[in-house]
Automatic annotation (TrEMBL):
It comes from Atopostipes suicloacalis DSM 15692. The lineage of its organism: Bacteria, Bacillati, Bacillota, Bacilli, Lactobacillales. This is DUF4349 domain-containing protein. Residues 1-24 form the signal peptide. Residues 64-279 form the DUF4349 domain. The keyword Methyltransferase does not apply. It comes from the Bacteria. Keywords: Membrane, Signal, Transmembrane, Transmembrane helix. The chain crosses the membrane at residues 262-283. InterPro entries: DUF4349.
Amino acid sequence: MNNRQTLIFTLFLPFLFLITACSSQERTAPMDMNSENMTTEEFVSEDEASVEDAKNADLDLGDKIIRTASLTYETIAFDEAVNFVHKQMDEFQAQIEHSSQTTNTKYGQENGEFIQLTIRLPQDQLDAFIERLDNYESLYAQSQEIGRSDVTKAYRDNETRINVLKEEETALRDMLQEQGSLEEILQIRTRLSEVISEREIYEDENQNYEEQIDFSTIYLSIQQTDRASDRDVSGFWNRLVNAFGDSFYRFVHVMQQVLINLVYLFPYLVILVVVGILVYFVWRRIRR
């Protein structure tokens, strides 16, 4: 009898533990779900805040902006296009900082003259100048890249350093007016020289920033070619049509190149033919 009771107790004991565990999980489940929801809401709010801050950061630009532009054009009328650019520079009060022009004199080449210009012009005239070049019928835009650099923080930091150094410089000059030992005077003069040099470095940096802010830099390249166009490469069919046109153009160019090479090689070919004929007759005479 005791064995039977022990067996029954042993069988029902796991069920009692299971029921107790289920009841405890039911009581704690709502609390866990609430805590998970609260945590999820916290993460969502933090993510939304970070995204909003990122958008605001992209739009929040300072007042010290450096603008640059890199422009590449092709043209058939090279001299006419270059003269047009110079006229626009005079009109927009632009200056040439650097100029480099090359002429391809090698025979059989597809491209001719090429010019690179580094132009400085007032920043408020940049967009109008680019628009004027884009609207000129003999210039075909191949690539355009316009950049903006915010140097406000660096400029303000330099201003703070300059003010601090000016205050130190004033204090050192006042100390020189006081009587002191020769060693103290030499130390003050040495430090004063260091402060002045450091201040001038920061002032030069800010002056360079101001020049780049007031006058934008344009890197302009113009390539002479016998097939300049502003082809549309935005869609598949446009790219396919351009590919057919390019392949036919390349084929014609290669055939022209082969013909030109044959003309240049003609004297050598004549000599080879004459030498070949002489060798043939000598060989036949030897065989006889």
